[in-house]
Amino acid sequence: xxxxxxxxxxxxxxxxxxxxxxxxxxxxxxxxxxxxxxxxxxxxxxxxxxxxxxxxxxxxxxxxxxxxxxxxxxxxxxxxxxxxxxxxxxxxxxxxxxxxxxxxxxxxxx
Amino acid sequence: xxxxxxxxxxxxxxxxxxxxxxxxxxxxxxxxxxxxxxxxxxxxxxxxxxxxxxxxxxxxxxxxxxxxxxxxxxxxxxxxxxxxxxxxxxxxxxxxxxxxxxxxxxxxxxxxxxxxxxxxxxxxxxxxxxxxxxxxxxxxxxxxxxxxxxxxxxxxxxxxxxxxxxxxxxxxxxxxxxxxxxxxxxxxxxxxxxxxxxxxxxxxxxxxxxxxxxxxxxxxxxxxxxxxxxxxxxxxxxxxxxxxxxxxxxxxxxxxxxxxxxxxxxxxxxxxxxxxxxxxxxxxxxxxxxxxxxxxxxxxxxxxxxxxxxxxxxxxxxxxxxxxxxxxxxxxxxxxxxxxxxxxxxxxxxxxxxxxxxxxxxxxxxxxxxxxxxxxxxxxxxxxxxxxxxxxxxxxxxxxxxxxxxxxxxxxxxxxxxxxxxxxxxxxxxxxxxxxxxxxxxxxxxxxxxxxxxxxxxxxxxxxxxxxxxxxxxxxxxxxxxxxxxxxxxxxxxxxxxxxxxxxxxxxxxxxxxxxxxxxxxxxxxxxxxxxxxxxxxxxxxxxxxxxxxxxxxxxxxxxxxxxxxxxxxxxxxxxxxxxxxxxxxxxxxxxxxxxxxxxxxxxxxxxxxxx
Lengths: 110, 612
Fold this sequence. Notes:
The structure holds 2 protein chains of 2 kinds. By secondary structure, chain A is α+β, with helices and mostly antiparallel strands. Chain A has a single domain, classed as CATH 2.40.50. Chain A has 2 helices and 5 strands; from the N terminus they run αβββαββ. In chain A, a hairpin with a 6-residue loop joins strand 1 (30-39) and strand 2. The radius of gyration of chain A is 20 Å and the shape is elongated. Chain A starts with a helix and ends with a strand. Chain B is of the alpha+beta class. Chain B has 3 domains: 33-114 and 566-611; 120-144 and 163-370, no CATH class; 383-556, no CATH class. Chain B is built from 13 helices and 21 strands. Chain B has helices at 6-19, 241-262, 279-282, 341-346, 348-374, 385-406, 420-426, 441-459, 463-471, 476-484, 488-498, 534-537, 539-548; strands spanning 2-3, 39-40, 44-49, 57-61, 65-71, 78-85, 99-103, 105-107, 177-183, 191-201, 205-210, 268-271, 275-278, 289-294, 310-314, 320-321, 335-340, 578-587, 592-596, 601-602, 606-611. In chain B, strands 1-15-17-14-11-10-9 form a 7-stranded mixed beta sheet. A 5-stranded antiparallel beta sheet of chain B has the order 4-21-6-18-8, with helices on one face. In chain B, a hairpin with a 3-residue loop joins strand 12 and strand 13 (275-278). The radius of gyration of chain B is 26 Å and the shape is elongated. The two termini of chain B are 39 Å apart. Chains A and B meet through strand 1 of A and strand 15, helix 5 and helix 6 of B.
């Protein structure tokens, strides 16, 4: 099998760029669509978000966001689009729903 | 949590009724319209025949139907229209159906305005907070003598039974003490460890009373003397050994009876990094249920007539252990629920029902969540709030007759039946959901969710239905439809008819005297409910409120016989899994024709004509 120097260089370049992005690029925001619901029993109920494809997240608001959790929960009953990050590391924690925590940076009513 | 709503509910409804016609419609408060299905136009003409042998006649109107002709009628029949929303999305009022014109009948206006909505407008009994001198033990940990344990996600590193290091308490009533984390502020967001004394012990429970002291050093919640009860909000909050033992005795009876229907609470604990371990390894009270009595929400006032507040609660944090963040850091590591001292002292009968309510929450966490975590499934079940609270109120419902027989002072007012008047008045403000955005939405949610569960239980198999929803491998709507064997669409259709047709052995008005389940020679009977005669059902709460508030005009609270209804051409937002009722009119001919609005119809909505 012959491997050209040029091919090796390109492969290494891809690997290098990929590793750089992995290390310093951070996680890209994700967008989910679904409905706000409440979980847990009163008075320790907490808001969650069930997506149209069946994922369920506890929702929190990004620090310094210009909206509140109450703004989102007031839209309960409406189809919403949330943008933010998923943290799966908190799964199975207290008041953490089955697919983790979704920290919302943007949201809108569809 | 069981909110004590009676007085508050009266005030709320009184206030709403008094000012409802002055309120603006807030149904589109988000300033946009919402639909659940496709918007369609109607052009078709349909016909149907009324049958006197069917009761009631329920005729579905398809989204494409522009007019419906019904023959075979006689004069004087009342024609109703019901609309349901069997979807998760709000349907804006603009996209709902209405009758635009008729022939063969006189049209009707409703007995409630479509502008009636949850817009606030009345004062609420003020919560009165008073700070106590509790010890802010944020850094203290219960069972602080436990050895430090390394975090590990590996099940193979689980400490064995032989290494168990938590000593079980030696329960001696009036002598044994331990520190217990309890909430300390009005929104129950702060917790502190407080010393508690064991005041009663049962076969399945311990009753602890927190040892708070007043300015003079006297116990706040405990007296060795007698307790003079008062239900007007001016009673004290001290209980004695007689009350503590009655709590233990009643819970001992309730415990196996609730488990028989709802399943078993978990004997496991979520230890450190999500390891499921035996609770008896880590709890100093083993697998017994701890009932903790103190001033929940720190809201008692000896000078106020405020009777609002939290009667009791369960919080799953106590099933977590050795977590360092969030409320789990304040876990008491065991089976715990919490009961308010004021209500325990003054409304003891109602607290018995609350024991059943809160215990169901503990069982729900065990049957739905812990069981799936134990199986290490990727998707543990977690009940949504409306479904969980509905089940707890059904738990009170099935225990009602037992508590009435066992306690002479227990009445329907102490049971979830007290929520029916609010359901009749506000069913359209929420669907099957736990809604919090409006001032009183929580109360409407409780009333609606219980009413639906109570009706479903009486129509889909009684205790067997309740047992199925409690123990099947589903939650929420899926759990209910799996238990009933019907779609939610079909259930809502029949539910709306039950809210219109007032007759014996129909809808809510079905008594199930004996179930297939038995415990302690109790067969879990379910009482019939006549939505058109609630004043008789709830006479005690009516007269008590009138006695304490003689100048309040609450006659309108009972002026609606059965659920309220709108007029023939009304449009109202339909919340998820909700419905609305409209009276179309009264027949004057054997054949009638109903013409409906033709454009912008959300086809997710279901429309029915109901004639009894």
